[in-house]
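During the reporting period the student researcher (J.K.) took over the structure-prediction task from the postdoctoral fellow and processed the backlog of single-chain submissions. One of the processed entries is reproduced below for the supervisory committee.
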Amino acid sequence: MSYRMNIYNRKKTWKFWLLIFAIIIGVCSLFVTNSLVKSLAYEEKKKIEIWAYATNQMVNISDEGNFSLAIKVMESNENIPIILVDSTGILNHRNLNPINEITDEYLKKQLAIMKEQNEPIEIQVFENYKQFLYYKDSILLTRLRYYPIFQLGLIFLFMFIAYLAFSSSRKAEQNQVWVGMAKETAHQLGTPLSSLMAWVELLKSKKETKDMVLDMEKDVLRLETITDRFSKIGSQPTLKNINIVSVVEKAKTYLQSRFPDKVKMEVSFEKAKTLVPVSQVLLHWVIENICKNAVDAMKGEGEISIHILDEESNVKIHIQDTGKGIESNILDSIFKPGFSSKKRGWGLGLSLSKRIIEEYHKGKIFVKETAEGEGATFCIILPKKS
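J.K. obtained the following structure tokens:
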């Protein structure tokens, strides 16, 4: 496995530790907020107890100064909702702040909420007469309870948006690199290729070099094909309605003559003619990349089966080999730029194939099936309408 594989392993490790760091921040935030909520709830309970004590004092004292102090204590509660009841029903309420007017039904609902939240504070007014003070969390305490949820929600929303922005920016940069590299490669190949073609034509005119030149001409034509591929990668290719069966058959014929004798290829299809908008040069390149990887996986001995399925809105091309299969731990990385399981591979073949199918042809390419020791099946889906 190549060094480039380790790049993606390191990326996964960094993502894991970033996620752990985010979880730690969230847990710490929840812990601190929970501590503050408990402290504030305790303080509010103390205030209500003081309020209840002041209510009791108003009933049992006659000293005017103390009476005024009790009223001041009672009026100091401006944020904790309370309801005072006795055996006959609701006597008083404070700080409920309803949206509409206060009704008996509204008071009963608030009282039920208070009974669920806190135990009432008992006020012994007379020997045989008691009042009970119910209360619930203040608006501040309620907001503080829900604050960590909103905080974590905003943090994760920000991280999600930042991730999308980063991924979009990175993808745009990769596209620019692909286009720039492809154009430069086509340009660099084009200049000496034109000169070579001229020399080949000159040598063909001489009898003593005619046989030798025929082999040279094949190599020049191969270089011309490669240059054409890169030039189309560097710009949006023109898609033409072409018989997909014919394209696959031509690719099979070309590859079979260049593969080892122990590699057998076969093509099967449902219809002899199925028109699909494609770039023949680029699709041929995709099939070539997948088949070459299959030959490497089979170590130069085995079978490659290409099956064409004609469906209502698209065409599927299944390319199956009898190689060693794809390991599950690298399955998610095989289409990433720079990934290669071969020591001398650059990891561009499948990445280019994905770009050609998904971005230029608006289709899909993925591994349909694979098992260790049982080969792999790639699936290419091409829409019938561009």
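The committee noted the following: Confidence is low (pLDDT under 50) at residues 1-5, 62-67.
J.K. will present the remaining backlog at the next meeting.
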